[in-house]
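ENTRY TYPE: paired fold submission
RECORD: A
CONTENT: sequence, then structure tokens
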Amino acid sequence: MGVRMALPYERAVERVTAALKDEGFGVLTTIDVQATMKQKLDVDFRPYVILGACNPPLAHRALTAELEVGLLLPCNVIVYEDDSGAGSVVAIIDPAVMFGVGVSPALGPVADEAAVRLRRVLAALATP
């Protein structure tokens, strides 16, 4: 699931973080891929961040249903600068697809709710 935004990268990250918050998700982790590539490999890479987003009530329900679901948490959201350098791309994996990978059927309703919320995040980002 994804959306292109006519915003510079830094502003896009701010908007994504705010839209996640509006749907009850906090950002637990931030991985600056560009900085990591430079530090570890001394290579240049486009501005790119992986945000580990978590909705605590949904995470609690998921972990209560299946402890191993922690392997799939938090929900990763990526934001990166597009090829033009003037816009950004946001992508989120569909939790219903991700949770369908051999885990408990009890996770279905949790994954579905998370997917609905994350789709609303993308819809909010698609409007200027």
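RECORD: B
CONTENT: sequence, then structure tokens
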Amino acid sequence: MNTQNVKAGVLGGLAGGLVFGMLMAMMGMLPMIASLVGSDSAVVGFVVHLIISAGIGLGFGLLLGDRVTGTCAGVWQGALYGMVWWVLGPLVMMPLMMGMGVQFAQAFTTQNLMSLMGHVIYGMVLGAVFALLRARNVGTRQALS
């Protein structure tokens, strides 16, 4: 396991989570996230969202980290990764956790399309921050050699 990929993935996930979390706050969606842990507090929803964001970022680092060859590649891979998580999160896992069943039939509602946009933005920030952190770490290691 490449610990640099893990660290960059978690930090990139948190950065993306901050941006996406602000968008979710503006749309009033954080209480729904908080409901996953039995709360209706926007603050709790934001904390839960950041924890999930860090975990998803960790997955990015593990699954795609070695494929990120630069910032542009990181942004595109992050955008695609965000799309995958849009399907897995709000269309599959979250509805199942809330006892509603998968929501594929609802995928193209206005709310879900806004969620898709948020997930893509999250992924782009994740990928960009990941690539920048990796480039900094590679440059530091080369300078030390």
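NOTES ON RECORD B: The helical segments are 3-26, 30-34, 42-64, 71-97, 110-144. Residues 140-145 have pLDDT under 50 and may be disordered.
STATUS: closed
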